[in-house]
Structures are given as C-alpha cells and as structure tokens.
Amino acid sequence: MDMQNVVLGADGTSAEDVLAVARGDAQIVLGEAALRGIAKARAVIEALAAKPEPVYGVSTGFGALAVRHITPDLRAQLQRSLVRSHAAGMGPRVEREVVRALMFLRLKTLASGHTGVRPVVAETMAALLNAGITPVVHEYGSLGCSGDLAPLAHCAQVLMGEGEAEGPDGTVRPAAELLEAHRIIPVVLREKEGLALINGTDGMLGMLLLACADLTRLFTAADITAALTLEALLGTDRVLAADLHAIRPHPGQAASAENMRRVLAGSGLTGHHQDDAPRVQDAYSIRCAPQVAGAGRDTLAHARLVADRELASAVDNPVVLEDGRVESNGNFHGAPVAYVLDFLAIAAADLGSIAERRTDRLLDKNRSHGLPPFLADDPGLDSGLMIAQYTQAALVSELKRLAVPASVDSIPSSAMQEDHVSMGWSAARKLRTAVDNLARIIAVELYAATRALEIRATTAGLRPAPASQAVLAAVREAGIQGPGPDRFLSPDLEAAYAFVRDGSLARAAESVTGPLA
Prior knowledge:
Blueprint: E1 5-8, H1 15-24, E2 27-30, H2 32-49, H3 75-86, E3 90-93, H4 96-110, H5 119-131, E4 134-135, E5 138-140, H6 149-159, E6 164-166, E7 172-174, H7 175-181, H8 193-198, H9 202-232, H10 242-246, H11 251-264, H12 284-287, H13 289-311, E8 319-320, E9 326-327, H14 335-363, H15 386-402, H16 424-459, H17 466-477, H18 490-501, H19 504-513
Parallel strand pairs: 1-2
Antiparallel strand pairs: 3-5, 4-6, 6-7, 8-9
Helix pairs in contact: 1-4, 3-6, 4-5, 4-9, 9-11, 9-13, 9-14, 9-16, 11-13, 13-14, 14-15, 14-16, 15-16, 16-18, 17-19
Main location: cytoplasm
Pathway: Amino-acid degradation; L-histidine degradation into L-glutamate; N-formimidoyl-L-glutamate from L-histidine: step 1/3
Family: Belongs to the PAL/histidase family.
C-alpha cells in the first residue's frame, strides 16, 4: 500500500489527494490551521445552542420536521436519531474506493471550519480512514440533494460505533468491534454534528473524481487503438496533420490527433490506401477519430473544472460563515456535479460507439482491404473474432442506455419540502458502469487491431510503426495470444481489458513515443 501522508488544511484538497486516499490508502493528517478553524466554528454553534431561539440543525428537527424546537436534554438524541433514521440504504454494497472517497471529502468539508463540529469528530473520521475501516454503504438511498444522505449516514453511523464496516482485512464486522480493535473511541454526537456528517455532495463528487482519472487513461488508450486500426486498414495519416486541426481549434481534438500521429510515426502500413482499390478518403470512424475523442477530452476538461470548484467548496446546511453568522443555504444541491456526470456518460458512449465501428471494419472482408473475414485463421472452419464484436456491440448498446441523463429527473421528497432534487448519485453510479464498459470496448478493438497488424506483417511484409510494435510485444508478453486457429476467447479478452484498464497499453506506446496526452 502507498502510505504517503495527505495533510488536510482548511483550504480544501486536491483531486490527487482524493485518489491517494481512495485508491492508495494514504494516511491523513489534519493540519493545525484546520483544527483551529474547526474549533472556532464550534464555538459559534455552542453559543447558539445556549440561546432560547431555535436554529435549524442545532435546536430543531430536520427537513419538513424543522418546525419543532428541541430542548437541550434531547439534542444528543436528536443527532443520533438523525443518523440512524437516515442510514436507510438498500441494495448491493458500494465499492470500497467510493466509500473512502466520500468519507475523505466529507472530512475535507469538516476541516473547512464552516460546519460547526467539534475537532474530535474530524479526528475520529480521519482515524477510521487511516485504520482502513470502510463503512458498508448501499447502492440506493441518495437523491443527490440535501447531500448524499443515506450513504453518508451509513458512514456517520460507524463513527458512532454502530452499523457494519469492512476491516482492513476485507472482512465485514460490526462497527463497534472494529473500532475497539483499533482503539478508536466512538463519537457521541452533539448539536449540529449529525447533520454536518450527512449533508454534502461527497459521494457524487468522489465518483466524479475517480471517473475523471479513469477516463483520462481511457481517452489515451482510445487514441492508441484508433491509430492501430488506421494502420491495420492501410489508412492515411495525412488527416492527422497539425495544420488541419489548427483551423478547428478544439484543444481535445488537437491532442488526440497528435497522439495518433506520434503512435503512427515511422509506419510502413499507412499511405497504402490507394493500393488495392483507390480510396480518396477513409471512413468516418477512422478519419474523424480525433474529432470524436477530442470532443470527449474537452468534456472531460469541463468536468475537471467543475470538480475542482466543488473541491474548493464547503457543502453543508446551515453553514458557519467567517463573520460568525450561521445561515441556511442550498449549496447541497448536486446539479453542478450531476450535469457533468451525465455529460461524461454521453462522451463515453460515443467514444465506445466509434471504437466498435472501427472494429467492425477490421472484421468485414468487404471493408478491411485484404484482411481475412473476421480475422479468422481458416475462415469458415474458424469464426475468428466474429463473436468478440457481438460482445463489443452489446457493451456499446448498454453504454447508450447509460447515456440517458439522470439529472433531468427529479422526484419530490420530505413532504414536498425537498421538492427538486439532482439525482447526481444515480448519475455517478451509472457513469462508473459506463467507464468500465468503455474499457472493455477499447480492449476488443485493441485485440482485433493487434491481430490484424500481425496478419499484415505476415502476409504483406509491411512493418507497423515502432510504437505499434512496442504495443504488440507488450500485448503478447501479457499473455494475450495472437492470430491462429479458434480458441477460448474470453480469457484473452479479459486480459486485454486488464491491459487497457491498468494503463499498460499507454505505457507500451509511450516507451517509444514519450508521454502522450
């Protein structure tokens, strides 16, 4: 495990820190400035709690029940009841990395000094993360407004020593047992603290940050596989010229075209597009690869901008302001995050769609310019990659369904007090599936393109580009087999998926090209 330290200050955190905690199990240190800010805001809350006037979240009920004033002797019970009642999730468990991300992001807001919790609450949450204790959070329970309520409540429950959690050994146990084993004292929540633990966009933001990291890798992978396919189809790389892309100055498009140009440098296969049957132009799925992938890159850049703004935010209700005011607000509404989660699902679907069209061209003897049908060893006796494309097509069709926006939906809740919600959590959950599907689609194109390149080299004596050769060597070293008689394909396709997902594809190409965008 990567045990680097992440110092959490009062001024927020970075996407890199979130990934380090979520995926690298980095240790969290609460900075002195953060602890001072937490204590300062807590003093404001305690002063308000001592007054007779009702203050939302401090001395009242919640949501539609905020009309009731709660006396001091019942306020600990109020916070405990809030967490217990809101821990109402159902369905499958959410992945460990997502739960760690949402906990760290909630801790980030606690450390901002705007929530009014005691320092011990933040310190205990940091201790849970550092011990590798991961609350059991369920798939369903957030509407993406008033925060990711149920998911965060399940985390807050573990902070209280209740509910279930997964220990560092991967075993799910009662939270009380895990806390005791790691000498962590459960928190008895006081005024405002239960509300502060559950009222944020942390789940959807965490999944956005994880998706941005994954898609960054996948856009590079898609540029590489597009280049390999162009090469295998004897296409022209003249459409990748920098000056052609400069006259339509979308930065993502230029980056994708440059990636493809660098992968194809020195190829002995490009430029043969007029050898067998004259082609003035390649098909759209080849020629327009930078335009489609580039538009996705620009969408990703916008998503990162929104994520960075959200990382700089303190999302809670009410909030403690610098001048000591405690104000209700609507900053917990997840619309900004929900929109870009949906945008990314659309970009992923289109990138998967164009990759599948390129694969289909490689397999169709009428459009592959001399390659055998389905890249089969003995067509007719062998089916080659026919059904691999079926699998890819099924994944593309699911991506299209996942691209239907969640954020255009809303359903009233809390007796019409919360009458418009973002559905951002749902957008994030479907994006995670879309990202995984996209990696599998790119893996199938990689598998087909590398086989096609080897067939070209064997039958026509044409040498792929040095970067393509490096990819071919790495693919075979990873145990992904090349051309030959039909065999059990599923293990090869899964190995290709792992090769794409873990960045091995990009590293292989970059061993020749240098860093790609």
